[in-house]
Amino acid sequence: MADNQDKNANSCLFCGLNGAGVLSKEHVIPQWLLRHLDLPVHDQLFQGVGHSESDRLLQTPRIHSTYNFVQGHVCKDCNTGWMSRLEAVAKPMLIPLIDQDRSIEALSASEKEVLGKWTVKTAYLHGFTSPLNHPPQVSHLQVLFGDKGSPLPGVSVFGMQSDFKKPSGYWITRQWPFFAAVAPSRRVTGESYKIGLQFRHLYLLTAFWPNPNWLLMLAKGIHIPLFSLLQNRWPNYQAEPEVGDGPVDQLALFCNSLAILGP
Fold it and tell me: Can you tell me the distance from the alpha carbon of 91 to that of 31, in angstroms, rounded to the nearest whole number?
C-alpha cells in the first residue's frame, strides 16, 4: 500500500486487506474510554482546521456525535484481533493515569512500551479521521500491525498530566519551534507531524521528525518521554508558556512547544 494511497480506498489502513465486507467501523476513541469519561450520549465533537498563525478557520467545522467518531478503513480482523487485545492491556494502566491516581513517572519500561503503541495507534486514527487532510504516511500505520507491531523508528511519544477544561480533545500540527542556524525545509516539515490527545488529566503526544540528524527537544516541565526507538538523549529548553482560557489551549501548548534541535 503506497503512502499516498487515497484514504477512501477499500482497504484496511493497518494490514492492507481489501475487498467487499472486510472493513468495519473502528471507534477512534474506544467505547470503554468514552464511558469512563462519562460523556453523555448526546455529546458533540467539534472538528475545525485553523490557520497556524491566526485563529481563523480555514473550512466549515464538522460537528457530530462523539460516539459516531469512527474510522471505516479498519478490517474486522484487526479491529477484533490485535487492536482489541491492545485495548485490553492498555485500559488498566490508562484509567489511573487519566484520573491522576498514578503518575506517568511511575510507569515501568514495559508499561511505557504498551502505552506508546496504544497512543500511536489512537493518534493515527485521529489523523486519518480528522478534516485536516494531511494524515500520517500509511506505512507508519502498517508497522503497528499485529501483537508484535511497533511504532516506526523516528516516532516518539510524550506524556504530561495537568488540569483540563473539557474531558477530551485532540490537536494536530506540523509547527515546530526550532533551534538551528538554518530553518528546516518545507519538504521535511511537511513529512513531520505532531498529534496530541487529551483525556481528562492525561495528555499524550505522538511526534515524528523525518531527519534523524535533528533531535526532538523538550520544553522543561512539560514533556515526559514515554517511548522512542531512536532517541535516548533529550535536550531541553526553557519555554515561556502562556496558556489561554480556551478548551484546548493546554493541549495546544503541550503539542506546539515540542521543539527540534538542528545538527
Answer: 11
